[in-house]
Amino acid sequence: MKKGLAFLLAFLLFLQSEAQQTINGSFIHDNVLRSYILYVPAGYSGANPVPLILNYHGFTNTAQNQLDRSDMRPIADTAGFLVVHPQGTLFNGNTHWNVGGWTLGSTADDIGFTLALIDSLSGDYNIDQSRVYSIGFSNGGFFSFELACKAGERIAAIASVGGSMTPQTLNNCNPSHYTPMLQFHGTADNTVPYNGAGFSRPINTILDYWVEFNEADTPAQVIPIPDIDSMDGSTADHIVYSNSANGAEVEHFRLNGDGHNWPGSSGNMDIDASVEIWKFLSRYMLDSLGQPPPASLKFESETSLNVYPNPARNNIILDVDGSRLFDRIEIISAKGERFILRRDESGTIDISDLPQGIYLISSQIAETTHFKRFIKK
């Protein structure tokens, strides 16, 4: 009998270790008690590193609100990632995330809190540091952009639902790497208007920024989503900007006629934002995204310089209007590294020793400099 009870107890303890957990945690940061709700998925053992999603609530909301609204627990159980719901502090009596602009005057060090939270969780759990992502609703979406602009070295990719960028965030954005970005937004959103307001930039302006930064192709591919629920008063289009640098895609779900909602939970029911977010984020790892070229060269207009073949594996040839007589040839990597190259008598340049990636070639003829991007396979 005692052996049977002992076995049953051991079995129950084993099941508990394999079951999901919802943990309320807190620690002191910047002399303020900061809290969060962590969801540990079923099957987590710590044997292998797992992704982490930071999931930020909206203005006046709470971590519990966001957990309930987005409810990524079933997805986490299947995909095996951790999801943490940080709690914002009070600003003029309302919970918030400090994003400048309309939160001007807030003293909350939310970026510092986020970095400390990642470090704290990494001390307790086996987290894959190349697969840490930020998502959020409304003010939480604004803050995910803030993290991409100011703490991108820890964040691989972001998703925003009903959020945007403040003018201050957009004007001072300095991402440290090509950043995959997914945006959900209702065209009838009266809280964060689709066409912008004094406190937020228009969604098309936000998309234009990240499309240009990530060097994605335009125009976008527009894919209508089947109108599964004709009673929700909304339809959806999936807008995809492809062929971005290092694969850092920019995508947008335009929710036609929808308001300030989390699709699949409220408002548009033709898509499930939580499912689509994981499908998007799961494609990216921080280590593979690469840093953009220096800002002074990043958006330089490409000239009549020809590079072929492009992409190339071992050798390339350059010419400008048929001429191959260059005074200087320089290649700049995505990390800003510069390589001075020499050509043999046939005009062939050996690139076999260059790592794979996207490069910018700067070539000079007399006093004219020509630019062109090419891909090393």
- C-alpha geometry: globular
The number of strands is 19
Strand content: 25-35%
Report the mean per-residue pLDDT as an integer: 87
Q: CATH superfamily assignment of the largest domain?
A: Alpha/Beta hydrolase fold, catalytic domain
CATH topology of the largest domain: Rossmann fold
State the CATH architecture of the largest domain.
3-Layer(aba) Sandwich
Question: Rounded to an integer, what's the Rg over CA atoms?
Answer: 24 Å
Distance between the termini: 67 Å
Coarse structural class = alpha/beta
CATH class of the largest domain: Alpha Beta
State the share of residues found in helices, binned by percent: 10-25%
The secondary-structure element order is HEEEHHEEEHEHEHEHEEEHHEEEEEEE
- Count of helices? 9
Strand order of the largest sheet: 1-2-4-3-7-8-9-12-11-10
Number of domains: 2
Q: Identify low-pLDDT runs.
A: 5-17, 294-302
Largest β sheet strand count, sense and barrel closure: 10 strands, mixed
